[in-house]
Amino acid sequence: MKTPLLALLLALAATVQAEPRKLAVGANPESVTRGFDGDLFISIMGPSRKYGDGDGKIVRVHGETVTDFTTGLNDPKGTVFAGGFIITADFDTVWKVDAKGHKSVLAGPKDFPTAPTFLNDVEVEPSGQSILVTDMGAVTKMRDANNKLWPIDSAEHKAIPVIARLFRVTLDGKVTEVIAPNPRMLNPNGVDVLKDGRIRLAEFFTGDVLEYKDGVFTTIAKGHRSGDGLVHDSKGRFYISEVMFGRVTRYDADGSHPALLSEGLGLQSAADIYVDEAHGQLIIPDSKAGQLVFIGL
């Protein structure tokens, strides 16, 4: 039988254990991946987030130490490790960064079959020889004067131009279009791909989680407006983050049993999440707080 004092101590211990690890990494962190030597690499969009500002960068995390890895970017967002490079999307350019932190253009504006408008998330395809890159399209038309998303089915919603695309970029810089503009994919942000080639997209404006295969869209989850990160784990479960609302939700592989994972974390935002199964954790970039938040899977 537990005494009242023992019960209190156990409750306090559980509270301490439940406190997530947090690590300050810089102004507006967006995306995270494991890369060289197993370290974490995080895209930092920077304080101004304007085209040509040059205050964006990628930082490296080794243990608890954060250092600049490459600088002089503008607004780096989705970030992956592929072909021996850190690869990130930045407005209209896809960069690759080598082990010494030297950056070079993998694909610039002129390499795209259609001029990109706002490149965002990236994901390595199963072959490991190419990446998928979302172009969010008409991002300036999504919000009102208070920076809130227009209501669904409003006149403003219906006036948003359908120009978003999904591109494929090979590791030698060849760019092709994978998904052409479609009203279902109005402003796609996060992208994920399964081993069988199914592509999943976080539709930022409508809040739908879409699956695309053989030219057909299927909605597998709804209600996640400002959807940013979209990832899956080895059990097939998928995770969706909402950057504007600081929420992270996990679903079973079939889209059932949604579980809110961000409850009580005090997140100000939730950007491009990363499933780090080797270390038993989900890493959440809280852009507004300038930090990473680590929770158990």
Please describe what this structure looks like.
The protein has 297 residues and is mainly beta. It has a single domain (20-296), classed as TolB, C-terminal domain (Neuraminidase). Helix content is 6%, strand content 44%. It contains 2 helices and 24 strands. The strands form 6 sheets. Strands 1-24-23-22 form a 4-stranded antiparallel β-sheet, with no helix packed on it. It is globular. The chain starts with a helix and ends with a strand.
Question: Secondary-structure map with pairings?
Answer:
Elements: H1 4-18, E1 21-24, E2 29-34, E3 40-44, E4 56-62, E5 65-73, E6 76-82, E7 85-90, E8 93-97, E9 103-107, E10 119-124, E11 130-135, H2 155-158, E12 165-170, E13 175-179, E14 188-193, E15 199-203, E16 209-213, E17 216-221, E18 227-232, E19 238-242, E20 247-251, E21 259-260, E22 274-276, E23 281-286, E24 291-296
Antiparallel strand pairs: 1-24, 2-3, 3-4, 4-5, 6-7, 7-8, 8-9, 10-11, 11-12, 12-13, 14-15, 15-16, 16-17, 18-19, 19-20, 20-21, 22-23, 23-24
Please sum up the structure shown.
The protein is mainly β.
Note the main attributes of this structure.
four-stranded antiparallel sheet; 297 residues; mainly beta
Number of beta-strand segments: 24
Side by side, the strands of the main sheet go 1-24-23-22
CA(first)-CA(last) distance = 32 Å
Q: CATH-wise, what's the superfamily? A: TolB, C-terminal domain
Q: Note poorly predicted spans.
A: 8-17
CATH architecture: 6 Propeller
Q: Would you tell me the structural class of the helices and strands?
A: mainly beta
What is the overall number of helices? 2
Mean pLDDT: 93
Strand content: 35-45%
CATH class: Mainly Beta
Q: How many domains, in number, for the residues?
A: 1
